[in-house]
């Protein structure tokens, strides 16, 4: 008789250890001309950092063109209260992070010229903790 693992309804995830592996997938956009913000190193990005970069890019291009975000923070990071004693289970979810691998595209910006697009993506990349490069599509 084969034993099935016990199913839990609300299972909390483990904190990620180590960096994500470099991406082997390449984004193929032949019909669209625009700019892409691609990471040079692996790491993790907080949901608030993604939102700060998005707001900064939109502000620089004066809400023209189309901006696509290709990442989503789907890893929960939990934290217990600072004065909490040991035990009594895992802490509450503190924030959400996204796993970024080297070579992964984060933002796509198209429908705008290079005069506005490149400085906008550069200022958005300054809000993020990893190193990025801007590619022309």
Automatic annotation (TrEMBL):
Record's keyword annotation contains Zinc-finger: no
GO molecular function, one term: structural constituent of ribosome
UniProt keyword list: Mitochondrion, Ribonucleoprotein, Ribosomal protein
One BP annotation, GO: mitochondrial translation
CDD domains assigned to the protein according to its UniProt record, in alphabetical order: Ribosomal_L16_L10e (cd01433)
Gene3D superfamilies assigned: Ribosomal protein L10e/L16 (3.90.1170.10)
InterPro entries documented for this protein: Ribosomal_uL16 (IPR047873), Ribosomal_uL16_bact-type (IPR000114), Ribosomal_uL16_CS (IPR020798), Ribosomal_uL16_dom (IPR016180), Ribosomal_uL16_sf (IPR036920)
Highest taxon listed in the record's lineage: Eukaryota
A GO CC term attached to the entry: mitochondrial large ribosomal subunit
Alphabetized PANTHER family for the sequence: 50S/60S RIBOSOMAL PROTEIN L16 (PTHR12220), LARGE RIBOSOMAL SUBUNIT PROTEIN UL16M (PTHR12220:SF13)
Family annotation (NCBIfam families): rplP_bact
Family statement drawn from the similarity comment of this UniProt entry: Belongs to the universal ribosomal protein uL16 family.
Protein name: Ribosomal protein L16
Organism (species): Ecklonia radicosa
Source lineage: Eukaryota, Sar, Stramenopiles, Ochrophyta, PX clade
């Amino acid at each position: 008789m084969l034993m099935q693992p016990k199913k839990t309804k609300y299972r909390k995830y483990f904190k990620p250890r180590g960096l994500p592996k470099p991406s082997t997938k390449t984004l193929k956009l032949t019909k669209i001309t625009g700019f892409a913000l691609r990471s040079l190193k692996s790491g993790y990005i907080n949901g608030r950092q993604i939102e700060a970069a998005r707001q900064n890019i939109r502000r620089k291009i004066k809400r023209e063109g189309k901006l696509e975000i290709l990442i989503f923070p789907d890893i929960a990071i939990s934290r217990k209260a600072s004065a909490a004693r040991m035990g009594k289970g895992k802490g509450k979810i503190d924030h959400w992070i996204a796993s970024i691998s080297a070579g992964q595209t984060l933002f796509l910006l198209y429908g705008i010229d290079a005069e506005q697009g490149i400085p906008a993506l550069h200022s958005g990349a300054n809000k993020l903790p990893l190193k990025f490069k801007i590619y022309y599509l």
